[in-house]
Each structure stands twice: as C-alpha cells, then as structure tokens.
Amino acid sequence: MLRKVLFNPLNETNKDQDHNHNEDKPEQNASADLQHILDQFKRSADLIHHRYPREGLDVIYFSHMINEDKLQRDLLPPLLAAPAADIILNEQSQFQQVQNAKDCVTGILSGNAAIFYNNVAYLADVTLPASRSVEESESESIINGPHEAFNENALTNLSLIRKRVRSSHLKVIHLSVGEISKTDCYVLYMEDIANEDYLSELIRRIKNVEIDAIHDTNMLLQCIDDNPYSMFPQYMTTERPDTIASKLVSGKIVCLVDGSPSLLSAPSSFFEFFASADDYYQRWAIGTATLFLRFMALVITVTFTALYVSITSFHYEMIPENLILTLTTSRSRVPFPPIIEALLMETTIELLREAGARLPTKIGQTIGIVGGIVIGQAAVQAGLTSNVLIISVASSAIASFVIPSYIMSAAFRLFRFGLICLAGLWGNLGLVIGIAYMVIHLSGLTSLGSSYLTPVAPFQPYDWRDVFFRFPFRLLNRRPTQNRAQNKTRQKMKR
Q: How much is the pTM?
C-alpha cells in the first residue's frame, strides 16, 4: 500500500507562516525523527514523501536530485518484498543510520533518500550527478599536450587527478564551506612532499570562512587571501588536470570546490602566472624563448602607453630627430593633452574587450576586430588622437593577451591606468614612482605566508631554471624550495 504526499505551500496555516525562521536550521542534537524532518521542509513543494504503512516505511527525497530509476528498481523493491529490518540492519547494507536531524537534512539536500523505519532515519545514496562531460578548456587552450579540462562535478575532477597521480601518497581532505550552501570543498596534497605548515594554514583559513554561500573557487580564494585588498591574485587557478597534477607532484597544495571547474594551488608565486602547460610539451629552447616573450609582453603592456604620455608631455628630447617631425604632425590636430588622449583610447579598448567577452563568440570576435579598426581609424581622421598613440595602445592591448593568466592580465591592465595618470602628472619621475610602488607592493605580498616573489626574494637562484628558463627535464631533478617540506624529514616514497 502506497501513500504519496506532495507538500503544497498553499495548504499551510497562518500559524505555520509565522513560524520562527530559526527552526529552518536544525539543531545539532535534535533527533532525526520523521515529524521533525518534515517540519524542517515545510513549504517545500518539490519534496516527495512516500509512505508505506504496511511495511512501516517512510521515504523522503527530492526527485530532481536523485536517480529515480535506481530508487524504484534497486532500493525499494527489496525493502517491500522482505522484512525491512533484515535488509536495513544488514552489515553489508547500503543504508547508513543517522543520529541527528542536521545530518539527515544535509543528506537529503545532498541528493540522498531518507528511509524512516521504526522512527529511525537511514540515508541511501541514490544521487544523480548532474554535470557536463569532460571537454577542452576554452580559457587555457594549448597546441601540444592533453586537452582535457575540469568540469563542475567535484568527483569527476577528483577522478581526473587520480588518473594522473596514481599514488597512495595523494591525500584528500573533505571540508564544507558556506553557512547556507554547505558547498563541498576538497584539499589535496602529497604526503611527505607538501609542507605541512602550509597545509594546516590553508585548512584553518577554509574552516574560518564565514559566508552564506560559495559558488566558485575564485570566490573562496578571495576569502582566504593573505592580502585581500591587493589587485594581484595570490593563488594560481587552472582548469587543466595536467597542470594540477604537476603542482601536486612538485609539493603544492590543491583545493577544489564542488560546482567550479577551476582549482587553486598554493602557495603561489608571482612568476607562476607567466608559465603555461605548453612550455613543457615542446623543446626546452622554445619554451625558454616563449617565457622571455611573456616577460617582454609584461613590460610592454605596463609601460608603453604611460611612456608615450610621459615623453609627449615633458620629455620631447627623448624622441629621435627622424621621428619628432612625424609625431608633431600627428599631434598637431589633437585638441586634448596626452593624458586625456591616452585615457580616452585605453577606455575605448577596454570597452571593446568587455563587449567582445560578453557577446556570443562569433559576434564578439567581429565586434573586437571591426570595432577596433573602425574606431581607431575614425579617431585619427577626426583629430581626436594621434597615429603613434593608436600604435602604442594597440601594442599594449596585444601584449596583455600574451600573459597566460587572465586574472593577472586584468590586474596589470588596471594598474596601467594608474601609471598613465602618474606619467601625465610628473613625467618619467611619475612613471618610476609607479613602477617602484608596484615592486614594493609585490615584495610585501605573501601566499599562505610564503613570499610572493620567490625565487627572487628570497634569493634562490637554483629555482630560476624553472621560472625564468625552461631547462631540460634531466636538469629539473629537484622540487622548488618554496614547496619542499621544511618541517620534518621526508620519507622516501615508494615508486
């Protein structure tokens, strides 16, 4: 005999509507009896309650969160065909008894079915994982190497990591973040390789996060930053399993959040944001040249436009004689001072960049290319800007795309506006002051208490071979100093 009950919020009494909101949060010590659990889910029209009076069973679950076929085919028939006690109390049973209401409510909200027998609650895992398949990363595309990327399912992401790091030394710690969302969070590390001081500090920070909901790794890392007011990212994030595997093997600590395709690794250094997986899938000489190109792009994107403003405002003597006539002719029709001219064009470029990112892919590419060409050419013909500035702004924009990390690239694009203002006020002196401030600020940043500018400060020249250069693999036989366990003698790992 089956009785099915759907909760209808229209049938609630006025007394229920005035119910104290605090009762929606079950007490830790409250018993997991049927009526108490039903009270917790008042006004939940999507909750399904099956009642079997003859067998003495009650089943509660959210139909959209479970595998309905598994429930009806594998779970319920044995319970209804035989004495429920023989199946539920069996040592090999898939039913897990819960002692308090909080665990029972959390289990139901996690996609389990709650079985009540003799007013005792049991949870059965019939979760229906809802996630997209493993696809290629759009934000970290490479030419050579694996093309798999993480998705939003934490268990799928764990399997992708386990497939690449087949070692019993890979440990996983489960945490929960968010007072309301209770998002699953997993901390991964290699035992006897990762520094346990950094591990303890990361776990402590995650446990101390006080926020209603966490939906993405990038939200979590902002809650555990050493310097939350800095514009520069202090944790490396990636969507690539091969990158995370290499971080783990080198001694990094990794954190993944359920519902996010991005994973963070810690501690991180400033120079990690300029490395790409491509560097290790091609010849070492090509990888080294590409690294130099990225650091050159950093200098270009930060200083080119600011240097134009500085020279045209205060330091005409720095312009070669062959170029000064061209520049003077180009600027003769421009009614604005160089600082206004530069800020106007940089803002236009950022508007085009943001528009291209928000529009569908095909339309966004068209807007970015056509808009940049049309607006730039029209601005020059209208006398609103000079040809040299267009070249400078375009070079800075292109150079910013060379930096592999989008978050780091965005930080430097924002910092560039400050340098332009300083260069417009004080010329080269302002430019030097701005760069000096950036270096001092970066020197003061830390990641899990580790120096952000390692291996430059502290000075570790041995680690430069995998930071400023990409040495052959036979010479990369030692883990970075920043990641090595300093707090105890490492045991020799069994291969």
A: 0.79
